[in-house]
Each structure stands twice: as structure tokens, then as C-alpha cells.
């Protein structure tokens, strides 16, 4: 039985608790949360002990789940790693690049599993295309959300856009060549809306727009590659594939399109979306990595690389303001 301790049982932490209770082979030892009112309510609702001493909880665990505000990630993670505990930590991995580098180094030395909560990797709409041959040359992303006080301790880049940065890095598998970025602070002291263009060494270009002050919600990614287009709707959990029809294609809707190169037959397919709860899937994958001694699906290296690009974006935005 894998003994889990949860650090932070706010809005997202409660979702984690709900899912941990449904995962076989796991025992929730207890939780730590400094908010007494919230902690008392959680202890009563879930029947899980509240710990007032972080180290006491750490000592009783095999692994921990860190769902605290970002500024507390480093302290909790590093204490757990020093005790040889496996760590699941919500994105972003840490608040600063120095903290992230230290966590990566310490995790390697301690030989513990670390998984970062880039939950969109487990979104059913993404899982539906995960094993397809993807070599996009242009990517367009829109991630828009209505304003919510939660998450505003960091910029929209580290709050929202980092999800798409992680997905894009995972798909493109190429080093970043150039970044252009602009952002505006509207309701907080950090950028609330941003537009970013990333060029990769392999020639792929990604345009990303993220906003946490939108009137509507949107989480869409479009991938354009030779002979095909792929649309992923992370919010509605839908995926659409449009490509030149091949003779082996069956059970797809198709139509003819006149082009300068002659008539092309276009096939439109909707890949089967697997059932699944993304949060539960990511926590289950963390447990499996520990049980099977295999790499985590979203490692501390992945979390570090996504942070590195996010911080480069923030530096570009900051530099643009200075020049203005």
C-alpha cells in the first residue's frame, strides 16, 4: 500500500483528494494545510487526519502530493526529497529557475520519482492523438479563461500558457530558436493576457495566446503539418483530423476539393476519445511509475523545460516594457 500525504487542500487539492480515494493501492495518511477553517472542514468531510507539523506527515509517507500555491512548492518538495520521498507537484514546478534547477539536481541524487502536474497531457482529447505521427510546422493555440483569484500569485504565462508550452515541447521535440512576446497586466501586477511566437530549430513555429480576463472559456490547439490539420479542443474534449485521403482510409467522411494542383480528396475523421478523468489518470500514472520503477509521464525535467521557456517569455515581455 502506497502511503500518500497531501499538502494543500484548497480548490484543486480537494479534486486531488477525491481522486486519490478512488485509486487502488493507495492510502491517504493525512494532509497539511495552514488554513484552519478549510482544514477542519476537509477533515470532517473526508475523514482524513490533519497534520500541523509538515515533517511529521512527511515521515509517515512514501510519496507526497503538493497542491499548494507556487511559492511553497520548493520548500515542501526539497524537504520531501531529502527524506527520500517521491513527489507529485502541481505546475509550475517551482517559483524560480534556481529553485527548479535545485529540485532537478536533488531528485536525481536522491533517486526519487518526481511528476509535475501538467494535467493536459492526460486530457482525453490529447490522449486520442498522442500516438499519431506528429510533425507540425505551425501550431496555433488559444487558452482563454474568465478571471479567478486562484492562480494569480503567478503570471498568466505560468498559470495558463505553461500547459500549452509543455504540450508543444512534448510534440515538437526541438530546441527553441527564437521567442517574441507581448503581454499586458490588467487586473494584477503580472501579465494577464499575452501573445507569444516561438520558433524552433526544426522550422516549426507556434503562436500562443493566453488570457485570464476573457468573457468566454477556450482551450484549443491547432496543428498544421504536411497534408494534414489536427484540431484539439481540451475544454470540450474533442479532436478533429483533416488530411488528404489515402486508399487505406475507411469509415471517414470525405469530399473533393479543387486546388491548383488538381482535385484532392479530403478526409475528415474524429478520433475516438478515450474515457477518463485527467486528474485521476495523472495521479494513477504517478503511482504506476513508483510501483513499476519506471520514469514518470511528466518528469521534473519536463517541468523544468516548460518553466525555462515560460521564464524566457516573461523576460521578453519585461524587456519590451523597458524599451517602450
Provide structural commentary.
By secondary structure, this protein is an alpha/beta fold. The longest helix has 24 residues, at 300-323. The chain folds into two domains: 2-119 and 279-298, Rossmann fold (3-Layer(aba) Sandwich), CATH 3.40.50.720; 122-277 and 309-323, Dihydrodipicolinate Reductase, domain 2 (2-Layer Sandwich). It has nine helices and 15 strands. Strand 4 (63-66), helix 4 and strand 5 (86-90) form a beta-alpha-beta unit. The strands form two sheets. A nine-stranded mixed beta sheet has the order 8-9-10-7-11-12-13-15-14. Strands 3-2-1-4-5-6 form a six-stranded parallel beta sheet, with helices on both faces. The protein has helices at residues 11-20, 36-46, 54-59, 73-82, 97-110, 124-127, 156-172, 278-292, 300-323, and strands at residues 2-7, 26-32, 50-51, 63-66, 86-90, 114-117, 138-144, 176-184, 193-200, 205-211, 218-225, 228-233, 238-244, 253-259, 262-269.
Key terms:
single chain, 324 residues, Dihydrodipicolinate Reductase, domain 2, nine-stranded mixed β-sheet, 34% helix
Itemize the secondary structure elements and their pairings.
Blueprint: E1 2-7, H1 11-20, E2 26-32, H2 36-46, E3 50-51, H3 54-59, E4 63-66, H4 73-82, E5 86-90, H5 97-110, E6 114-117, H6 124-127, E7 138-144, H7 156-172, E8 176-184, E9 193-200, E10 205-211, E11 218-225, E12 228-233, E13 238-244, E14 253-259, E15 262-269, H8 278-292, H9 300-323
Parallel strand pairs: 1-2, 1-4, 2-3, 4-5, 5-6, 7-10
Antiparallel strand pairs: 7-11, 8-9, 9-10, 11-12, 12-13, 13-15, 14-15
Helix pairs in contact: 4-5, 5-9, 7-9
